[in-house]
UniProtKB/TrEMBL annotation:
Residues 322-677 form the Glycoside hydrolase family 65 central catalytic domain. InterPro entries: 6-hairpin_glycosidase_sf, 6hp_glycosidase-like_sf, Gal_mutarotase_sf_dom, GH65_N, Glyco_hydro_65_C, Glyco_hydro_65_M, Glyco_hydro_65_N, Malt_Pase/Glycosyl_Hdrlase. It comes from the Bacteria. PANTHER family: GLYCOSYL HYDROLASE-RELATED (PTHR11051), MALTOSE PHOSPHORYLASE (PTHR11051:SF14). Residues 687-746 form the Glycoside hydrolase family 65 C-terminal domain. This is Maltose phosphorylase. Belongs to the glycosyl hydrolase 65 family. Residues 15-266 form the Glycoside hydrolase family 65 N-terminal domain.
Length: 758
């Protein structure tokens, strides 16, 4: 399997001492930082003239880019929602004795670039080697996780040899463009610059789709040794520049701090933005860079206290899980219920900050256990708020009920490929499935009884109309779908999609009588509807092959020329080597499909069924969706296939750090990062929950010495520690709880640790 590791292995840092122009974009993706309000790729403050993707993104700020398709089909979404590449505020252009500092061109040595995962701090240093002069530059940058509108940057120049006149040019730049803009348009219109207040303001272009325009104001202020500094300011359309010059002799150094405030019309009206930014800047500057950093770090420490996963004995595995937790939290920490988790977070454009089924299928199971229940509830409410969009989507397809979108910012579908927009509808049960996960895990059924019922009934009505009766089979069938395996389109009776639809109808029927009176009145399900739904539950066709003992991914799957992935090792990833036609006809599977269904409902299948399906499908799976390895790792662990579980854990945990899918240049795979946590907690530790029962079945990879993690469960904080001799489970906080470990009852008591022999 291909991999490319450009950062050193270290438990708390992601560091490199090498700079290679070819890997610049990859390096930028991996050193992205964010604070769940905004984020950016690891671009260089002083600019870079080589190949780079300058990228800054603001949570919840988006633009509807008019659809591009070859041939228009009725029902296509009119636009594709994109997170516009936001005005860039990190710029600090530098010249030394007249030469522009640009690592694509100048001579330099001692390069170091490092992301400190404990602190969420990005730092970089190098020695510039000019004519008769050597200057060491050290940069630090972080996005404040308490004062979210604030970005802080510090650059220190130390002359090692010679004399240097250094010109700094601190900039705000609203002229940025998206690389993925459909019509090469600029998404931002300038509103004005204010030289006195050091601000620029821009607004997203008007659009014909009734999507609100977003206004953003950026403000900068410079400091030296904590004291305010006034440079020479100039501006041009959507740009502001402030220049400071210093002369330094050998061994002298100079530190420049750049403070930035970013406000958006999501929180502050356009006309008030300058005043609000002024106040926020005063608040920020009431503290020094070091004080702000200490505050920021203390908050990160608190987050790590309850969410860190410790792995002893395998530094690469350790680094992988921490990197993933850090990047996830930098993207989303549940502090703003209007937001969601984009597949690339703030780290790139492709997939950007839009919401996918990834959230419910991959983020919810992890966030339920490591954040407060209110965080998951906010994710559920996000979808509830978007129900009108889901009704719109179903109507566009000529169907009743609600169809949640594959890609969205506001509930309205904006994916532009028919095989996904119209056919990859499994999302319409995966998304409501999070309601069941929330209810089971937290024990709080108030949501499913009320708002949740709107979601369940809306989607149930869609499913009941999307299947049809086959007289020939005497069953309900579902034609023309794409399962999670996007390497097959327009298939009939995809087992996963039909299983999910069946689950949704069954769950809705079970929960409906328990709903509040208001909810029942709101959804108003008739007796005929209930009968029809029950009939579908009883008679939906779920293809299987009894001889092989497997569920069939779709009707024709066994007609394919079945051969294992091991025969095509040299042609992977196939999506970069093969024509689409060749991929579609091949037996190779992009990501868990049948196995995704078995993963969702572990209680519904016997060990033998799980084993047969795993042994059949896993060898055919190329894992070319980053969402794939973790699901397989969890199942492999349950089936006692330890080596496979560990191999797939490594792949999921270090997917970006080792660039396994050869696409991390585009940005990080944020939504699949939870997979490494799932692989450890659900896989290695075997955590499951059902019917108020929490269970573990731990094992430890041979080359690890121990691992430990903490989970929240119904008001309790539980720590699990596993080594080769024993498993220790401690109830750190909360009421006593009886759990099952390896099927044995264990009573947890507050402040006590239960030790169980391996
Ligand atoms: C996967 C989808 C996923 C999307 C965004 C695709 O490659 O096949 O399942 O929702 O990426 O992560």
């Amino acid at each position: 399997m291909m991999m490319k590791r450009i950062f050193e292995v270290d438990p708390w840092k992601v560091t490199t001492h090498k700079f290679s122009k070819e890997d610049k974009r990859l390096q930028e993706s991996i050193t992205a930082i964010g604070n769940d309000y905004m984020g950016m790729r690891g671009n260089f403050e002083e600019g870079y003239s080589g190949d780079t993707l300058q990228g800054t993104y603001l949570a919840g700020v988006w633009f509807p880019d008019k659809t591009v398709v070859g041939w228009w089909k009725n029902g296509y979404p009119k636009y594709f929602g994109k997170t516009p590449n936001a005005p860039s505020f990190i710029g600090i252009g530098i010249t030394v004795n007249g030469e522009k500092l640009d690592l694509a061109k100048v001579k330099f040595s001692d390069f170091e670039l490092s992301l400190d995962m404990h602190q969420g701090l990005l730092s970089r240093s190098f020695v510039y080697e000019g004519k008769d002069v050597k200057v060491k530059f050290e940069f630090e940058r972080f996005l404040h996780i308490i004062q979210k509108e604030a970005a802080l940057i510090k650059v220190k120049a130390t002359v090692l040899e010679g004399h240097a006149k250094i010109d700094f040019d601190s900039t705000l730049d609203g002229t940025v463009v998206n690389e993925d803009s459909n019509y090469d348009e600029r998404f931002w219109v300038p509103l004005g610059e204010d030289k006195d207040r050091r601000t620029i303001q821009v607004k997203t272009k008007p659009n014909p789709y009734e999507v609100p325009q977003f206004t953003v104001l950026l403000k900068q202020a410079l400091r030296h040794n904590g004291e305010a500094l006034q440079g020479e300011v100039s501006s041009q359309e959507a740009k502001l520049s402030e220049k400071i010059s210093v002369e330094l002799d050998q061994d002298q150094s100079y530190e420049l701090e750049k403070d930035v405030i970013v406000v958006t019309s999501r929180d502050v009206e356009e006309k008030d933005q300058a005043d609000v930014a002024e106040n926020l800047m005063s608040k920020l500057q009431a503290k020094s860079f070091a004080e702000n950093l200490a505050e920021h770090t203390a908050t990160w420490e608190k987050r790590w206290e309850t969410s860190d996963v410790e792995i002893a004995g395998d530094a690469a595995a350790q680094q992988g899980i921490r990197f993933n937790i850090l990047q996830l939290f930098m993207t989303y920490y549940g502090e703003d219920e209007r937001l969601n988790v984009g597949p690339k977070g703030f780290t790139g454009e492709k997939y950007g900050g839009a919401t996918y089924w990834d959230t419910e299928a991959f983020i919810v199971p992890m966030y339920l256990a490591i954040t407060k229940p209110s965080v998951t509830k906010a994710l559920l409410e996000y979808r509830h708020n978007q129900l009108p969009g889901a009704y719109h989507n179903a109507k566009e397809q000529g169907l009743p009920g609600a169809l949640f979108p594959m890609v969205t910012f506001n509930g309205i579908e904006c994916h532009n490929e028919w095989e996904i927009t119209f056919e990859e509808i499994h999302r319409n049960a995966d998304i409501p499935h999070a309601i069941a996960m929330y209810t089971e895990y937290t024990g709080d059924d108030s949501y499913v009884k009320n708002e949740g019922m709107d979601v369940l009934v809306g989607t149930a009505r869609f499913w009941a109309a999307r299947v049809h009766w086959s007289k020939w089979r005497n069953k309900y069938v579902m034609h023309g779908v794409t399962g999670p395996n996007e390497y097959e389109n327009n298939v009939n009776n995809n087992w996963f999609t039909s299983t999910m639809a069946r689950w949704l109808l069954k769950y809705t029927l079970e929960r409906l009588p328990l709903a509040t009176k208001e909810a029942q009145e709101r959804v108003h399900v008739t007796e005929e509807e209930k009968e029809k739904w029950q009939d579908i539950v009883d008679k939906i066709y779920l293809p299987e092959d009894k001889d092989l003992g497997i569920f069939l991914q779709q009707d024709d799957f066994l007609d394919k020329e079945i051969r294992p992935v091991s025969e095509i090792e040299d042609q992977r990833p196939i999506n970069q080597h093969w024509s689409w036609d060749k991929i579609l006809r091949s037996p190779f599977i992009k990501q868990a499909d049948v196995l995704q269904g078995i993963y969702f409902f572990p209680e519904n299948y016997t060990k033998e069924q799980k084993e047969k399906n795993f042994d059949f499908y896993e060898p055919l799976t190329v894992h070319e969706s980053s969402l794939s390895p973790s699901i397989h790792s969890v199942l492999a662990a349950e089936l006692g296939k330890k080596d496979k579980a560990v191999e797939l854990y490594e792949r999921t945990a270090r997917l970006d750090l080792d660039n396994y899918n050869n696409d991390t240049v585009d940005g990080l795979h944020i939504t699949s990062m939870s997979g490494s946590w799932l692989a450890i907690v659900q896989g290695f530790a075997g955590m499951r929950y059902d019917h108020d029962q929490l269970k573990f079945k731990p094992f430890i990879p041979d080359n690890w010495n121990h691992y430990s993690f903490k989970i929240n469960y119904r008001g309790r904080l539980i720590e699990v520690y596993v080594d080769h001799q024993e498993t220790k489970i401690s109830l750190l906080k909360g009421e006593n709880l009886e759990i099952l470990v390896n099927d044995q009852k264990v009573m947890l008591k507050e402040g006590e640790t239960e030790c169980l022999k391996a």
